[in-house]
Write a structure and sequence with these properties.
The chain has 310 residues and is mainly α. Among the domains are: 36-124, Winged helix-like DNA-binding domain superfamily/Winged helix DNA-binding domain (Arc Repressor Mutant, subunit A); 176-236, no CATH class. Helix content is 34%, strand content 6%. It contains ten helices and four strands, in the order ααααββαααααββα. A two-stranded antiparallel sheet has the order 1-2. A two-stranded antiparallel ribbon has the order 3-4. α2 (46-57) crosses α4 (77-89). The chain is elongated.
């Protein structure tokens, strides 16, 4: 019993699972159903998917505008606006501007937990009538003549209970903050803006930006320079009063400051008045005193004496 058996098989090693392991707990309260077509969308960005999930979890009537979402999440208004445009493009969101009786213009947001294109395709599949198909008869026997059964009359299509309002263009659109699409030229100001952004980490090591963030923020800095701001003034604005906590999204913070603190355009320069040159000095022929006149002659006093003598 005290001897070991060298031919005994070794103990089986535990198998290490690969990939993700799910531990699912059934939710009974405070949950939102999200389709895989959204959670695993191949074209939407991670920020767009996250915003779609957050918006679908909000109750009806909650605010979902850009400023409210920017106050809720660390990303700036520029990135959140771009993500909302992604959701509109893929049918998960619709935004329309409506004018209240008071004259105020508000934005109405409609969220779709299923893309509108997919919803329309599913409704078309449900409304499509089914045509009975007859089984082919064996080739060894004559095929009897069959009278096809009349196709069933499709049920009348009921109008949708809720139709999203058609977007209407804003008659007085507001000028959005400068974006890369608006400034694509490479000028001296653009080169200065790129150099300024790439060197911000010298003021604060936390402001070390990736190359793509420098290209994305350079047009906004160029807009500041085009409006007369000095490069050092832009640098002070971007690096002043930074939070003491670790900066998780330095590019988002800089984009927010560039958009919110953009100076107004320079006023038109006033028209310069032409300088009026004084008349040249002349020596009076009568008293030899100096006076200003367009041509030589007598001063005012000598002309008065001559007129009195006459």
């Amino acid at each position: 019993m005290d001897k070991q058996n060298p031919s005994a098989p070794p103990c089986a090693q535990p198998r290490i699972p690969r990939g993700i392991t799910h531990i699912n707990v059934r939710h009974t309260t405070r949950f939102t159903v999200i389709g895989n077509h959204l959670a695993q969308h191949p074209e939407l960005s991670g920020l767009a998917i996250g915003l779609a999930v957050h918006i679908q979890s909000l109750p009806t009537g909650a605010r979902a505008d850009i400023k409210t979402l920017a106050a809720r999440f660390p990303e700036g208004e520029t990135r959140i606006a771009a993500a909302l445009r992604e959701l509109e493009t893929h049918g998960y969101l619709a935004r329309t501007r409506e004018r209240l009786p008071s004259g105020r213009v508000v934005t109405h947001t409609v969220s779709y937990n299923r893309p509108r294109d997919a919803e329309a395709e599913a409704q078309a599949q449900d409304r499509r009538p089914t045509t009975p198909q007859s089984k082919p008869a064996p080739t060894s026997t004559p095929t009897p003549t069959l009278t096809p059964a009349p196709a069933p009359t499709p049920a009348p299509v009921q109008p949708d209970a809720e139709v999203p309002p058609t977007p209407t263009p804003d008659p007085h659109p507001k000028s959005p903050p400068p974006t890369p699409e608006q400034h694509t030229h490479h000028s001296a100001a653009h080169d200065t803006a790129t150099t300024l952004l790439a060197s911000l980490h010298r003021d604060d090591p936390r402001l070390l930006l990736a190359e793509r963030d420098v290209r994305r923020l350079a047009p906004a800095v160029t807009a500041w320079l085009d409006r007369g701001a000095a490069p050092e003034a832009v640098r002070r604005t971007l690096t002043a009063s930074l939070p003491e906590d670790p900066l998780r999204h330095p590019a988002g913070l800089l984009a927010h400051r560039l958009a919110e603190l953009l100076p107004p355009p320079l006023p038109a320069a006033p028209a310069t008045r032409a300088a009026v040159r004084p008349l040249p000095l002349q020596n009076c022929d009568g008293c030899d005193r100096a006076f200003r006149a367009p041509a030589p002659g007598r001063c005012r006093d000598c002309r008065s004496d001559l007129s009195e003598a006459a």
